[in-house]
Amino acid sequence: MTAALGVARVTVTPIAFPDPPLLNSAGIHQPWALRAVVQVHAADGSVGLGETYGDAPHLELLGRAAAALRGLDVFDLNGLRERVAAAVGVVDAPDRHGLTGPSSAAKTLARVVSPFEVALLDLQGHATGRPVVDLLGGRVRDRVPFSGYLFYKWAAHPGAEPDAYGEALDPAGIVDQARRMVQRYGFRSLKLKGGVFAPDEEIAAVRALRAAFPEHPLRLDPNCAWTVETSIRVAAETDGLLEYLEDPTPGLAGMAEVAAKAPMPLATNMCVVEFGDLPEAVARDSVQVVLSDHHYWGGLTESARLATICRTWGLGLSMHSNSHLGISLAAMVHLGAATPNLTYDVDTHTPWQLGADVLADPLAFDGGAVAVPDAPGLGVTLDPDALARMHADYLACGIRERDDTGYLRRFQPGYEKKRPRW
Ligand SMILES: O=C([O-])C(=O)C[C@H](O)[C@@H](O)C(=O)[O-]
Ligand SMILES: [Mg+2]
User: Fold this and answer.
1) Which of 58, 107, 193, 324 is catalytic?
2) Which residues are annotated binding-site positions for substrate?
3) Residue 2 — pLDDT band, cuts 50, 70, 90?
4) What number is the average pLDDT over the span 115-127?
5) CA pseudo-torsion sign 120, 126, 127, 128
6) ipTM (interface predicted TM)
7) Which CATH superfamily is domain 133-371 in?
8) Bridge partners, residue 291, by sequence
9) If one looks up domain 7-130+384-397 in CATH, what number appears?
10) Is Magnesium a UniProt keyword of this protein (predicted)?
């Protein structure tokens, strides 16, 4: 038997990168998105990478976990979970925007474990000479398909220069954005982030997308901005237009009421957000598609277990995404490639990072898909200069917690986050 490979030390580096003014049901993205890069250094000098949220309360918990990992065998993922659970304790650290649904101690713990688990898998890959996809069960596809993620947005943050995508505040703006995104990345399905304008305006945008892209499967996600009644009405009016309707209304009970009448499947990354949510969701038939997200489901191996549960209960499966960089994209690609029942194209914010990355060799999109790397581990390499620059941006930007609502309130003082709003 080969000797265990122990963790020598762990670093967690908070970083920031420019984020366009994207609107959602919580408000608007701030000028900087926060992330944290985890580097797990093994005793043989190899380094595993992970990426996660960079909000201050989360960073504090990451620090506690990082301090507890010395000597852990990089193959001992159960040991990782035990150590992190002991270091973190029972803590519930919700995010302010609420775009990933309710928080709990179990979900908080899963969020803290995740980047370390990805980094250990990266290390396992380096130790064995195998890509992470092989450690997750082997590849069932060579390319992972993504959907183009469309947002209502301002042309620029107030006082700043417009970004490359410009303004999108009506159906024509959304169609124009979709054209640019499809042209540049080749996406073959499209998701509109809704919950920003009154439902009829968003239905009009979906109709305009259908007219401009007759072959692209479409999705609409208002992040729980609608009542049950509004959701049922919108579902009826978008019959035949959407491959799924994502999180129209809050909660498993409300979603079940909508699902009973909606002509299309309902998807969620807001009401099934941890394993404990699944029994009720299945019993009520609240959702037909689960959007996993390794950042809050506890990492890649736990997300693969979620996929098995979805298959058992006949649930569709895809992946949720919020602002992320290339380490997370690589992790999503390996997971997507190892998941037989990935039934829909995966979400990604990659176009919205406008080229920023911490990697020397970010994975590229071709025909809307990303080829699964063959190199050992995640198959990506950190760019230490980029990391240092983005850490300096973190120190200088002054943002310590994502707050879409507070930022919008600066420009629209009466703005309130309401779920449901309509
Ligand atoms: O429900 C979703 O798809 C998201 O929450 C995705 C992103 O978080 C997005 O809404 C955002 O960041 O504004
Ligand atoms: Mg969603």
Assistant:
1) 193
2) 29, 100, 149, 191, 221-223, 269, 320-322, 349, 402
3) low
4) 99
5) positive
6) 0.98
7) Enolase-like C-terminal domain (3.20.20.120)
8) 318
9) 3.30.390.10
10) yes
